Amino acid sequence: MAAAAAMAMALAACGGGGSGGSSGGTTTNGLIKIRVGSSPGNEDATPFFAAQAQGFFKKNGLDVSETDIAGGDTATAAELASKSLDVVIGNASEWIGDIAKKSISGKIIGEYTDQNYVIVARKGITDVSQLKGKTIGISSVGGGDQIYNLAVLSHSGIKSGDIKQLALGGTAARIGALESGRIDATELPTTTVPDELESRIILTGAASPVKLISGAIFARQDLIDSQGAALKKFVTAMGQAADWVRANPKAAVAACQKTGSTAASCAKDISIATGPQSNAYTWSSTCAINLPAVQGTLSAVAALVPQVKGLTEKDVADTSFAGTKP
């Protein structure tokens, strides 16, 4: 009890005043508060929402609240910098750029999807090498999908000046632009590709020359330094929830729908993430960090954010929470 109280007091000193109450402190039943940010429609983070719905966070002594951050990387960085959030779940490549630019301070402490990207193109385009001179849809400038696209294109000798990049926002907007002919290609998470576009995938994650972490858990550095036990419990709960999702895919659809996605979309996402095409680091029991993929992410981000050059895995990831073996 004394240890829990000390942990709660230290977390309160670290936290700001964002949604869900300040971090730290305890609820009336003695749970430690952690405030989490995620992007709307983040189906790939289904284990997080399952951990909330099935009580895994509470069983590990945590009171976890979640806030949707709709403004992308810039808004998320601002929330972290102001200490309105303690943890964020989403695109690892964006945080690496923010760490390098010193707009945030923290590290990746776990991952939940790995190599989860495909390139989808309009009819008539069958290979990445054909994208020179074409229009590529991206979510936002500096976003993880832009970083991935440029890294992939560079392997075909295509530079950023050889293409037109159109910032369109989320997955649904990019799919619509592709289907209407407004863009020629875009990157999509494997789990969000509509059935009618599966035949137009020109590069799968498995075949990609660029190896990246897709979805990761990022924590503020002050929390890492002072509240490792609480963050370890957070990662443990995520792993337990991932195991539950694999064992209960139909029941997990309701948890996935907390992202705002439809039941059909969630069912497909869960089927892919738990199926044979998924790799060991996606929804693993440990939330383990794939260090070679971290290095690949560093290399990809460095092409867009020069400050990343010279950073190592230890500068952006802390493996003491989840380890490196799924």
Automatic annotation (TrEMBL):
Entry-linked PANTHER family: ALIPHATIC SULFONATES-BINDING PROTEIN-RELATED (PTHR30024), TAURINE-BINDING PERIPLASMIC PROTEIN (PTHR30024:SF47)
Family according to the record: Belongs to the bacterial solute-binding protein SsuA/TauA family.
Alphabetized UniProt keyword annotations: Signal
Origin species: Actinacidiphila reveromycinica
InterPro entries named among the record's database cross-references: Solute-binding_3/MltF_N (IPR001638), SsuA/THI5 (IPR015168)
Annotated GO CC locations: periplasmic space
Pfam families for this protein: NMT1 (PF09084)
UniProt keyword annotation of Signal present: yes
Keyword check for Membrane: no
SMART domains to which the protein is assigned, alphabetical: PBPb
Name of the protein described by the UniProt record: Solute-binding protein family 3/N-terminal domain-containing protein
Predominant location category: periplasm
Domain Solute-binding protein family 3/N-terminal, first and last residues per copy: 33-248
Cellular location(s): Periplasm
